[in-house]
Amino acid sequence: MSTGRYKILVYGCQMNIADAERMEGQLQSVGYTRTEETADADVILINTCCVRESAEDKVYGKIGEIKKLKERNPHLIFGIAGCMAQKEGDNLMQRAPHIDFVLGTGKVQELTRIIAEIRAEHSPVVDTVIGNTIAENLPIARGGKFSAWVPIMYGCNNFCTFCIVPYVRGRERSRTPEDVVAEVRRAVAEGYTEVTLLGQNVNSYGKDHKAADFADLLRMVDEVEGIRRVRFMTSHPKDISDKLIDTIRNGRHLCEHIHLPVQYGSNRILKAMNRVYTVESYRERVRRVREALPEASLTTDLIVGFPGETEEDFAATLDFLREIRYDSAYTFLYSKRSGTPAATMANQVADDVKHARLNRLMEEQNAISRAINERLMGAELEIMVEGASKNDPRVWSGRTRTNKIVLFPHGAEREGDFVRVKINQPQTWLLKGEVVS
Ligand code: SAM
Ligand code: SF4
Ligand code: F3S
């Protein structure tokens, strides 16, 4: 057993958080303990993201900072994992020789073996081969107390022309329904009442093993004894089937929130992005969702400044936003990712134009989010108490089933409780209210 301390820094999406929880689980299983202080750690690991250039810049900044720690403590082991590790491989070590190992996205299960190898031999390791198997039964050290991340599949087959993810996460591979359900059962036995099923495109679940599709899996997870809330992300608009929508409607614990990234609101750009749906087919899916689930919240991702974007394309996106009326949207500036088809497309959009369009898009969306939230004035909603609000320890923060953040003053309730809260102050990004007894 080892007696050192570790610190893991995580960037990127929920998949990276879930992977990091498996890395922590392994480190703890061989005797390492967690430290909050990077400077006190014997093992430092950065789980990285490369979806946009800004994400990579942050990691390079951190890698630079850790050089000083390495100079002070020659026994410190410093590793890079995740999507940037997969993308850059040993280039990372050439750029920063103080890195001891580079662990690809398919190699989470090798972490402790590699650290032990470095301890014994002091030679650097790079391991970035993505296989098509899934490592099961890894120990998991979960970050949340009541909400658990549960990956149901890895990789992506969609190759949207702007996106690096398929290159760094490999092809789609689904866990078996038995493995997913067993993980959910274990989480519930440990006190978790909410799970979020994760995948780059959860509606593609099971297309490889065909043992169950995503709707079947949702039904199985919904039936796990003791579960209170089941969330899932991300759904791809191309295959959000009627069966899936009906399953959510008929579910007991399946939360009425669908994150359905549209990326853009003009067919010309959607085609260039290789998103394989059209504005019309997307609109039809939303109509079907809203018909079946009138209370559901709908959120999205949008990219501005994709190569070739014209003022007309952008105006069409603003119109689409006004038409669909999302509860909220993540809006991104297009970031060129080398190796993806869009990076070499003609007519890249100038930075100042991109920024101006992003601001217009955010303004439009903020007004819509605010108007939708204002309609919740006076509503009594079921909230799961998640913890103290970041800004005020006397205030609880929780979420509605539709994934809206709600702040309310402390009463007799405790973390993890489900309470009814009456909304008295709806805002753009959150709701405020009071517990109703
Ligand atoms: N699989 C999900 C889907 O298809 O919607 C998204 C996963 S991706 C990690 C999250 C978001 O990052 C995408 O929905 C997209 O809006 C954004 N994104 C991906 N590549 C990008 C790029 N090159 N520049 C800007 N945003 C990007
Ligand atoms: Fe990227 Fe598209 Fe796959 Fe999402 S579906 S991860 S945007 S390639
Ligand atoms: Fe980033 Fe990899 Fe997620 S590139 S967004 S951490 S899948």
- Secondary structure tally, helices: 13
Low-pLDDT segments = none
Q: Report how far the terminal alpha carbons are from each other.
A: 51 Å
The strands making up the biggest β-sheet line up spatially as 2-1-3-4-5-6
What ligands can be seen in this structure?
A: S-adenosylmethionine, iron/sulfur cluster, FE3-S4 cluster
Count the E strands: 19
- Major sheet: 6 strands, parallel
Envelope shape? globular
Helical content class: 25-40%
Class of secondary structure makeup: alpha/beta
What does the average pLDDT come to?
A: 96
Strand content: 15-25%
What's the alpha carbon Rg, rounded to whole Å?
22 Å
Provide a concise account of the structure shown.
The protein is α/β, with parallel strands linked by helices and 437 residues long. The chain contains 13 helices and 19 strands.
